[in-house]
Amino acid sequence: MKSSVTVLAPATSANLGSGFDVFGVALDCLHDSVRVSISPSKGVRLRVSGLGSSSIPLDPVRNTAGIVARELLSLTGTGSGLEVSIRKGVEPGWGLGSSAASAAATAVALNELLELGLSPLELVAAAAKGEVASAGAPHADNVAPSILGNFTIVRSYDPLDVVRLTCPRKVEFVVFMPDIKKKDTATMRAVLPAKLDLSQLVYNVGRAATFAAGVALGDIDLMGKGMSDAVVEGARARLYPGLLQAKEEIISSGAKGVALSGAGPSLIALVATRKQELDVSRTGVDAFERQGILCRALSTRPALGAQVVKSEGP
Length: 314
Fold this sequence. Notes:
Helix 1 links the parallel strand 3 and strand 4 (about 80-90). The chain has helices at about 65-75, 100-115, 120-130, 130-135, 145-150, 185-190, 200-215, 220-225, 230-235, 245-250, 275-290, and strands at about 5-15, 20-40, 45-50, 80-90, 150-155, 160-165, 170-180, 255-260, 265-270, 295-300, 305-310. The protein is an alpha+beta fold. The protein is globular. Strands 1, 2, 3, 4, 5, 6 and 11 form a seven-stranded mixed β-sheet that branches. A four-stranded antiparallel β-sheet has the order 8-9-7-10. The longest helix is centred in the middle third of the chain and has 20 residues, at about 200-215. It has two domains: about 5-165 and about 305-310, Ribosomal Protein S5, domain 2 (2-Layer Sandwich), CATH 3.30.230; about 170-300, Alpha-Beta Plaits. The chain contains eleven helices and eleven strands.
């Protein structure tokens, strides 16, 4: 058995407008690194460093990676312990799957370290359990692309089933990270409407089908037309001043589609050319800054899923 394994897992953007709790895409701009190793003491011990690490709990039952580690360690039926060292490259609170990246990397690393032989879908299920710590429920929309890579669709939660598709080759995204006060996941789910009009359901089903068809057909314009939402985004955007105005300007600058990334406050814009990427980046940053909001823009592409980058023997 190996003594330690290190895995790199990408940031993600969930929902992509119309695919609430279903769509997700892995992004190559940011990653979490997780090193897991066998410990002589029982139980799971966590260490966290990097971006936003001071806000992350070290109690394994309150940490996404800790929950995953405890769950997978229990499968071995041994009295071994684990040390999990997390280096945060995906800062929490931006709507970019920070907790999911840690959970995904931990699941993949422990599958290798403990020689569990879990399938990709079983790894997604294990990592999703970790999301209870941040989202209150085992959501798979972020952990699925972080493990499987590229674009994923959570077809079903009971039983869990995930479809992976490859985005068109020319797809690029611009992620905007405005300096707006972040909201916790519980707050952002609490503002969602309890009931929907039939027209809203029809609108979102149509847009979600359009986005998925665009991915399958290699049609970026079609993908962009599917990145709109009549249910979730409006309710959440009201908590982020300046977001909708900036979104309108980004769309006007040539983005194929723009959506709130996860629960926000980040926005994700779909582009197809280098010129679009530059124009959209500049326009979005300026749009926020005219409202007195500092903003970072990151250019990114669909990423590979979690990868083992180092493995050490006994």
